[in-house]
């Protein structure tokens, strides 16, 4: 059996101290396998952002163990955590955050260049991803020349440019109209299935959540199946 792309065991996270302390996660457990799409559906304030920040190594848990691709991450120093984020974890947000002065191809190539790849390899990978996501002809267009759905597909391609194990998405279709949302979600799903990525996708869209492999929520600091 393959190893979990993300494994969170007994995770606890508390903000503040003493009487003002707020415990957001307590004894939380979550495992996501390669190729699996997991929807995170939780009300505001339940701990969704905290969970994504912990999974993305942007925060450290106060308790428990977190592994990405079998690597225990709690004890990693800042440099190793940064490298893990760069190479093993991809992020997609509600707003694309593309660099406006760069073309679609250049936006996707950039993280590969930062990771030490060659320009030729980075551009080849960018073009492959743009074709895979159905927007190959838009490679030389800047974000202002792309539709909202095209911009988000470029953001998805950028997130997986370095072939990460884990994709974390926070409302990736939340800024799109329903028909465009479906197109972007279908492209994201196809990419996850074809590459063996593991994906944790936070969404308030119950129709999209129902199309994923399973749905989890956060109640009382625990991660629960819906």
UniProtKB/TrEMBL annotation:
Q: Which UniProt keywords apply?
A: ATP-binding, Nucleotide-binding, Translocase, Transport
- List the CDD domains hit by this protein, alphabetically: ABC_MJ0796_LolCDE_FtsE
Q: Does the keyword Ion transport apply?
A: no
Tell me the InterPro entries matching this sequence: AAA+_ATPase, ABC_transporter-like_ATP-bd, ABC_transporter-like_CS, ABC_transpr_LolD-like, MacB-like_ATP-bd, P-loop_NTPase
User: Which residue intervals define the domain ABC transporter in the entry?
Assistant: 6-226
Q: Which GO terms describe its molecular function?
A: ATP binding
Q: Which family does it belong to?
A: Belongs to the ABC transporter superfamily.
What name has this protein been given in UniProt?
A: ABC transporter ATP-binding protein
